[in-house]
């Protein structure tokens, strides 16, 4: 929680009068997911024990989206449950006069993710975007900024309206990162922005309805005097540095996933209870994904 609280209060501590343009702080929560908002008014704890934050601060020129994920509570709960080590046969074959069966464990490998976060900086005036994913997943940490195209998605505006609280919103769809995305935006607020890398609509995105593995709903909106100076400084620092483009990010992610798979395989080979007892090959599925990007890795260990 220290990481969460520090980031939120850094928003408030560094607000100055340098930039006169009015800024907004949007707090999003998982859409149609049971849980509660914590006492800090920005953190959401789901019933299954996952803590998240989704914050967007923007003034129409500068923008910063921050995502935080911690499944420590769920990991602890799942680890305490009895594990069924009874394998099931997924493949059988005969070879050299012998009958073999490939076995698979029915339970997934547990992966603890702590202080997993995503930061996306946008500059609508300069048409630039930088992003960073920081993750303590399985082994080590991934932390490096990459650049991406600002608002490359082509929106289809749908003549439908829906109310979210007091906000009357309109519907839009697009195909981005290999999946269909549906959002609801509010044209009454003069901000063309949204969570993660989304934006480019005539109003802020209030509800991200179908992003495959994530869905977000605006929980609250706060008007702040100015955009935080420290985030502007961070933007200028990134802008003066060579930042690799998105394909470099995908290559790094693929390499990290392969290394993670090898490390899990090594651990499994040293696990006495995981060894095969009937001369069949025993496999276990490891699945982990990158939030928002729609990237998922599934390995048989």
UniProtKB/TrEMBL annotation:
It comes from the Bacteria. Pfam families: Porph_ging. This is GLPGLI family protein.
């Amino acid at each position: 929680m220290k990481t969460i609280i520090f980031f939120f209060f850094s928003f408030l501590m560094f607000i100055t009068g340098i930039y006169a343009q009015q800024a907004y702080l949007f707090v999003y929560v998982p859409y149609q997911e049971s849980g509660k908002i914590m006492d800090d008014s920005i953190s959401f704890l789901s019933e299954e024990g996952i803590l998240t934050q989704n914050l967007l601060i923007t003034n129409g020129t500068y923008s910063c989206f921050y995502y935080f994920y911690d499944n420590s509570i769920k990991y602890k709960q799942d680890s305490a449950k009895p594990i069924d080590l009874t394998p099931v046969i997924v493949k059988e074959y005969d070879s050299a006069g012998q009958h073999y069966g490939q076995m698979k464990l029915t339970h997934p490998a547990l992966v603890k993710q702590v202080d997993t976060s995503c930061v996306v900086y946008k500059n609508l005036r300069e048409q630039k975007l930088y992003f960073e994913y920081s993750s303590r997943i399985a082994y080590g940490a991934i932390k490096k900024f990459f650049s991406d195209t600002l608002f490359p998605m082509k929106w289809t505006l749908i003549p439908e309206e829906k109310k979210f609280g007091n906000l009357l919103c309109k519907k839009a769809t697009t195909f981005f990162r290999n999946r269909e995305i549906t959002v609801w935006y509010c044209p009454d607020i003069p901000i063309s922005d949204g969570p993660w890398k989304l934006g480019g609509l005539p109003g802020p995105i209030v509800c991200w309805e179908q992003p495959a593995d994530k869905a977000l709903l605006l929980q609250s909106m706060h008007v702040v005097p100015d955009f935080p100076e420290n985030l502007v400084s961070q933007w200028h620092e990134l802008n003066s540095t060579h930042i690799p483009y998105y394909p470099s990010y995908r290559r790094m992610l693929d390499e990290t996933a392969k290394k993670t798979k090898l490390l899990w395989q090594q651990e499994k080979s040293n696990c006495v209870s995981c060894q095969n007892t009937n001369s069949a090959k025993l496999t276990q599925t490891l699945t982990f994904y990158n939030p928002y990007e729609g990237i998922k890795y599934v390995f048989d260990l």
